[in-house]
Every structure is written in C-alpha cells, then in structure tokens.
Design brief:
Elements (H helix, E strand, L loop, with lengths): L1 E3 L4 E3 L9 H17 L9 H12 L5 H14 L12 H9 L5 H21 L1
Antiparallel strand pairs: 1-2
Helix pairs in contact: 3-5
Length: 125
C-alpha cells in the first residue's frame, strides 16, 4: 500500500505473494517521485463536467426553484469552464464574491451555492 497526498489517498501496489517487498518499495518511490514532480495526469474533472454531474445528482433532492437558483448562481457568478478543479484557488472565489459586494443577498446565495458545490466535489472526488 502507498499512502500519499493531502487527502491521504491509498493505492495498492501489489499483493504480498505476487510482488516482492523490494519491488514494491521501488515502485512506491517511483510513483511518489512522479507525484512530486507533477508528471502524473490529474484525474480532476473540469468545472463544467463537475457542475453537470452535480446538478444531475441534486435534481431529485432540491425543489425546482432551489435547483434553478443554484444553477443560476453557479453559472452566472462562477464560470469554471475548462478549469481543472484542482487548480481552483480560494482567491479565485473571493474575487468573484467580492464583485457582489453591493448585493448582500445575492452574495450570500452565491456563496451558499458554491460552497455546496465544492463540498460535493470534495466528497465525490
């Protein structure tokens, strides 16, 4: 087993009877080096893909007006597009919310929508 990253992701390298301990250690070092150097492909979804999946999943749980409001806030104020969600920074969100400074109710609803969406993303990925 190899545990890595901030979220402590676990990967199985191989079974004890099949892969020797020295080979498993060598493979673990190679994988950690790739993660550290950023050579592995990110399995992070784009904002657009994640938003589509999120809205499809919450469609049955939210009332129609709530779903429409959530969709409007996320698509109007937070246009993630092809941005990988792993690349999203808190400053990006703060800047978008700051643009709504003169509209406190709109700002609060937008914040609530994006917070629910990002919590879903964190749990789903």
């Amino acid at each position: 087993m190899l545990t890595h990253g901030i979220r402590r992701q676990c990967e199985t390298i191989g079974r004890v009877a099949i892969v020797s301990l020295s080979n498993a250690r060598t493979e673990a070092k190679r994988r950690l080096a790739e993660y550290t150097l950023g050579r592995t492909k990110s399995n992070s979804a784009t904002g657009k893909e994640a938003l589509e999946k999120y809205l499809a999943e919450v469609k049955g749980r939210y009332r129609p007006n709530t779903l429409a409001s959530c969709k409007r806030h996320l698509s109007t104020h937070f246009r993630f597009g092809d941005l990988k969600l792993r690349r999203l920074k808190p400053e990006d969100l703060r800047g978008k919310l700051a643009k709504l400074y003169g509209k406190p109710a709109e700002q609060e609803h937008a914040f609530t929508s994006v917070r629910a969406f990002l919590q879903w993303c964190y749990r789903a990925h």
